[in-house]
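Q: Hi! First time doing this. I have a protein sequence and I read that you can turn it into a structure. Is that right? Here it is:
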Amino acid sequence: MKRLIVFGLIGSLFLFLAWSDVALAGHPVTDNDEGIYLTSFLLIRKGFPAYAETFFSQPPGFLLSLYPLVSLSGNHLETFRLGVAAWSLVGIGALFWIGKELGKRWFAPLASALLYLIPHYYGQTLVLQSDAIVTTFTLLSLGALFRFLRTGQLLWFAATAVAYAVAFWTKFDVTFLPPLLLGIYLAGGAGTGNMAHRRERLGRAYRVCSGVVAAVSGVLAIPFGVGNVFSNTVWYRMQSEGVAAGAASLVSLLSTERMLSVVLLIGAVLVWSVRNRLKDMGQVLIFWAGSSLLFFSLYRPFFPHHLAILAVPVVVATAYVIVLSMERRRELIAPFTILLLVAAIGVRMQLVRTSAGSALLDPERQEGVAFILRSTKPGDGVVSDEAIFSALSGRLPPPELSDLSYVRIASGNMTSQRFAGIIQSEKPALIVAWNGRLKTMNGFPEVLSGYRKISDPSIHNPGAAFYRLQG
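A: Yes, that's right. Below is the predicted 3D structure, encoded as structure tokens:
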């Protein structure tokens, strides 16, 4: 009976999260990336292959994790957001699996509550980006690794490598690689046997991991063309390293994300107090949080949404040391966790109440979409630095111009000469400079040969500029 009650409570938590996700899926668009990815998905569905023709800056894992939704949703952003939310719920499920392997029944409810109290995490669970999805695959890899450490069965280690390979090919996630290697080392040195046997076990584990990761990488990358994937993702990131405007340091962003900073501080303090009780799995969790902090302190360009990725290892490690530190006062862990769950549910309910009736676009951008629909006809191409315009109007750009983000322009990946060449070749009916990104391109708008600037009194964005194809 007790177990039935527990399963009922867990099921209720998932149902609540799913209900709130549906209620919040129509929240206003605040990130240009959502329009970029939605436009890219629509272009790929139209027959312009990803990476070969449609520029796509994220690895194939992100594309494949959501692309099946394009046939269901058309250009409905809300459906893709719910796809991200569904993957996030899988990640919460992985927390319960990890808690079972750790033997800590309150670990998963506590970690879930903490995550949904961190704005940058719960915000990303309903945004068309890869940050929430990559954490799900990493958590699945962690669960399989812990299962392997407990059972020693290579099947679970292969599952660990598969899940990590998918995580890597979702956002080039390397934050879990150090703890994964630590887990391999711990597994290779576990048990009895002389040094030669331990080395043999360790070598076998490394070979299995390398082989599985290589195989999954091939399955994900080769169909799209390794060279095309490399140029769209790896080379693009190398070009973007020096683009610092709009980015910030980890320390400055943590100062704005107070809940994550508090969780990090609590975890850091408690780690010292329980250091002598950390077993193999606990060491992996602490190492994951530490390696993630180090990586993101060095990574550039670092944007606020990246905090969602950092939040997961920090919360997982902190939840573990909290539970461990309260084992001598076990009567406190249940009310403490329930209190945090109630707080997280309250935050979620408040979000649902305040977001009721909100529109995807603010009035100014609604004017922009309405103007595009009035000024063009179905089948016309529209190029805009406000990518959501193309997606919601159905007037798609040439596939190479699906992404006109600041980083792509400032890094030199999209130059004015290349832009002009594509425009002259494809001749889109309308070019919309809306948010200032296009205007940062050297030579814009002088490169728009054959286009005439037009205006409309219904547009209230003073920085907007429209250019119509002549003839």
